[in-house]
Amino acid sequence: MNNLFRPSAAVVLFVAALLVACQGANRGVGYNPTTSQELSPLSSPQHAIASPLSLECKAKQEGPLGTFLSYIAAGNVKGTTFTATSSSSIWILEKYTKVKPSPTPSPSPSPSTSPTTSPKPVSYYFYVGTFAMKNKQIGCAYLITTVNGKPISGEHFNGEADGFPNLKSGSNHVTVSQEGEVSSLVISHLSAKGGSGSATLIDSNKKPYTTGSITLTGREVIKEIEQVQRLLQNTSPDQ
């Protein structure tokens, strides 16, 4: 499970973009690296911006204070079915507590960089929907897969399913209170209209935690990773 949060640049960008699309400023402060170093690459942006995608998450907004579920599950699409690999999947509970907003820092000039050769564009399917667990945990559900079915650059899988709470705006301190494994996550009947499936979560002692459903309601094609990079550039704390 240690390798799950050391993915390729493409996956890191997508996960961060998902956080923007679903939560953005709604999360206030992202994952707390001092609480969980393993999760630090998934720290969310500080400011929301308009998503370049026409699809929007329709999950009910919650919070901003409380304890909420997120999950990330890497896996593969075969035909029209995505199946997660349990060894590359994790769920966490995060506790959001109130904190005073930090003052906005003054903008600082960006250092000049030499032009670099852009990698060959790779097309991705980007699915959007919702998830609902039996213990009443709900949120935004996403699935990203390569259009050509080949593994994501630098990885052994061609897709990733993600779920995050849709939180109301607020400045919050976030700590990880519990985590476990996504022992099963399958999404079937994938098409331009979406797809549906289920997930089973177990705790760190391999005991059942909860089960739930995933409903994807639409799909778009992202043809250039630069589209996501531009999205992230606009979410820096200096904005």
Topology (SSEs and partners):
Elements: H1 9-22, E1 66-78, E2 81-98, E3 124-133, E4 138-146, E5 159-164, E6 172-191, E7 194-203, E8 208-222, H2 225-233
Antiparallel strand pairs: 1-2, 1-5, 2-6, 3-4, 3-8, 4-5, 6-7, 7-8
Reading the helices and strands in chain order gives: HEEEEEEEEH
If you compute it from the alpha carbons, what radius of gyration comes out, rounded to the nearest whole angstrom?
Answer: 17 Å
Structural class: mainly beta
Overall mean pLDDT: 75
Which band does the percent of strand residues land in?
A: 35-45%
Low-confidence stretches: 1-13, 16-52, 234-239
Strand order of the largest sheet: 1-2-6-7-8-3-4-5
Number of domains: 1
Commentary on this structure:
By secondary structure, this protein is mostly beta strands. The protein is 10% helix and 42% strand. Strand 6 (172-191) and strand 7 form a beta hairpin. Strands 1-2-6-7-8-3-4-5 form an eight-stranded antiparallel beta barrel. It has one domain (2-100, 120-233).
Please describe the structure with a list of short key phrases separated by commas or semicolons.
mainly beta, 2 helices, globular
